[in-house]
Amino acid sequence: MRNPLSKKAVSIEPSGIRKFFEIVNEMPDAISLGVGEPDFDTPWRIREEGIYTLEQGRTFYTSNAGLKELKTEISRYLERKIRVSYDPDEEIIVTVGGSEGIDLAFRAMLDAGDEVLIPQPSYVSYLPCAVLADGVPVVIPLNQKNEFKLTAEELEAAITPRSKILVLPFPNNPTGAILTREDLEPIAEVVKKHDLYVLSDEIYSELTYKYEHVSIASLPGMKERTLVINGFSKGFAMTGWRLGYICGPELIAEQMLKIHQYAIMCAPTNSQYAAVEGLRHCEEDVHRMRTAYNQRRRFLLHEFKRMRLECFEPFGAFYMFPSIEEFGMTSEEFASRFLREEKVAVVPGTAFGQCGEGFLRISYAYSMEDLKEALGRLGRFLDRLRNGGIS
Amino acid sequence: MNELRKQILLYLEKNSRVDLSELAVLMGTDEVTVANEMSAMEKEKVICGYHTLINWERAGEEFVTALIEVRVTPQRDRGFDKTAERICHYPEVEAVYLISGGYDLLVTLEGKTLLEISRFVSEKLSSMEEVTSTSTYFILKKYKDHGTNMFRKNKAERMLVTP
Question: Taking the domain A7-42+284-385, which CATH number applies?
Fold first, then answer.
């Protein structure tokens, strides 16, 4: 039989954490600090709207780019939140989660050999999606001493004549880092100087603490060279509804829409109707969830300090990224032992790129009760490691 | 109201047993500040108590709650206040509200049995001079009380680890 597989598909490494995931999933009694999705139920208004539209029989395809009502609400929302105005008819595409937007952007913009600058640690999809679109991923390793922010110098150093797209994944999964306006301004200058485009993944934009989220698209001269990805998964606690959107210049949106049309047709109709309700009426719910995350964030910071676990203060998403360097283990060894000995799952930093070595991603998308239990076990584990004890 | 006070109140409303040091961490401030705000709000009667929400039915105790609509003749100068205050004094009365609409006062009452409650209504409430009529509704089941769902929630179905 001939080889059924494409070399390109085979060349892509399975997600670094898959092996670890498999071990975890075989331990049904384990508790976890490892999830990348909210612990809150989708606000009831949104769920109820979903149910209602099913009852109404609104179960057909929508137009490819999404429901007009939804695109209009998205446009208003972005105007309100990031002060950038997008034309709902030409510049917004409703996608299957934020993830589809990553794929669309790369496929619409890259020719073979074009380089995509990807700061890491970051979400697992950018690199393989770039490869699938014949792009060449160029990793920019971020530095703990900069609190995992991308700096203009780091960007400048990674640029070659083939560089085309900069991925800007902030607020960041897994580090929780955010970029303020002051951080973004010099980056935007470098981007303009080298005529790059930016794929700004702002899926965690609702979840920032102390500082308001700023989009690079709102800086002068940047809207025309930026694609903004956002969606409902994190801020509105709607992961399973699979609904996101990508916004950007009509020239690019037109091509992305073509790909979306042939590959996907349209995002789930039910989710689109529900999301309209979310954008119209759920600001309070989002605020309530943000407040709870912020309390947990403070709690974790405090507990880490108490356990002398080194961690910079993150101001976004729902992750902490503590360093475990002092224990002389790789992230994966640490995570495996912690899982085996205390039955708590955390994600090794290396799942998000090699420069995540020496770190763990700890999620605080859990109730205070769950966090207390898990942190109790973490404290015990650290004590044992420090006292050289072997369990 | 300042933001810290509001956040303290919102948290306490659902978790009144939280200890002071933890509350301070969650609020991003120190214990002394939280303690001062709390005692100030207690003095100002902003915080009126730290109660426990109990599902008596599940505790296996006999327990009946009734809502009673009461129509009252308002009194000169005092309006409804005097009558309302008199009703408040009975320990079995859980809450008394002045309401708009067809009735004047809404009284919630707790007792062990239907008989106990009907006796209270006929002997104490209806016999008050200013009370012109009452209608009593017995609560059959509490689905949600004080903002808390009383039914059992399904277990979360999240996977243990996701990127």
Answer: 3.90.1150.10
Residue type, A292: A
- Confidence tier at A24 by pLDDT (50, 70, 90): confident
Closest C-alpha among A123, A98, A90 to residue A253 = A90
The CA distance from A290 to B107, in Å, is 37
Q: Return the amino acid letter for A323.
A: S
Q: Is A32 on the interface with B (CB under 8 A)?
A: yes
B 134-163 residues with CB below 8 A of A?
Answer: 156, 158-163
Mean pLDDT of A96-114: 98
**Which chain A residues are closer than 8 Å to B160 by Cβ?**
24-25, 27, 30, 32, 34-35, 345
For residue A99, what is the nearest residue in chain B, using CA coordinates? B163
Q: Which of B82, B138, B139, B123 is nearest to B105 (CA)?
A: B82
> Which pair of structure tokens corresponds to residue B142?
């509490």
Q: What is the pTM of this model?
A: 0.93
What is the predicted pLDDT for the residue at B58? Answer: 86
Given a cut of 70, the residues of chain B with pLDDT beneath it are: 154-156
- What would the two tokens of residue A160 be? 């070659």
| B45 Cβ contact partners less than 8 Å away, ≥ 6 residues apart | none
Residue A284 neighbours by CB distance under 10 Å? 10
Greatest Cα pair distance in chain A: 64
B38, B47 contact by CB (below 8 A): yes
Among all residues of chain B, which has the CA nearest to that of A347?
B161
pLDDT of A389 strictly over 60: no
Q: Pick from A317, A306, A323, A327: which is nearest to A379 by CA?
A: A306
Q: Could you tell me if A24 lies within 8 Å of chain B, comparing CB atoms?
A: yes
User: Which residues in chain A are closer than 8 Å to B7, comparing Cβ atoms?
Assistant: 291
Residue A360, pLDDT above cutoff 70: yes
Q: Where are the domains of chain A?
A: 7-42+284-385, 59-281
Q: Are strands B144-145 and B105-111 parallel, antiparallel or unpaired?
A: unpaired
Q: Which residues pair with A197 in a beta bridge?
A: A165
DSSP helix/strand/coil, A255: helix
Pairwise CB contact (< 8 Å): B25 & A20:
no
CB contact under 8 A, B163 and A20: no
Closest CA–CA distance from residue B11 to any residue of chain A (Å) = 9
Report the Cα–Cα distance between both ends of chain B, in Å, rounded. 40
State the amino acid at position B106 in one-letter form. L
What angle do the packed helices A283-306 and B20-27 form, to 10 degrees?
Answer: 120
Residue A299 has pLDDT above 80, yes or no: yes
CATH of domain A59-281: 3.40.640.10
**Where residue A390 falls among pLDDT bands split at 50, 70, 90?**
low
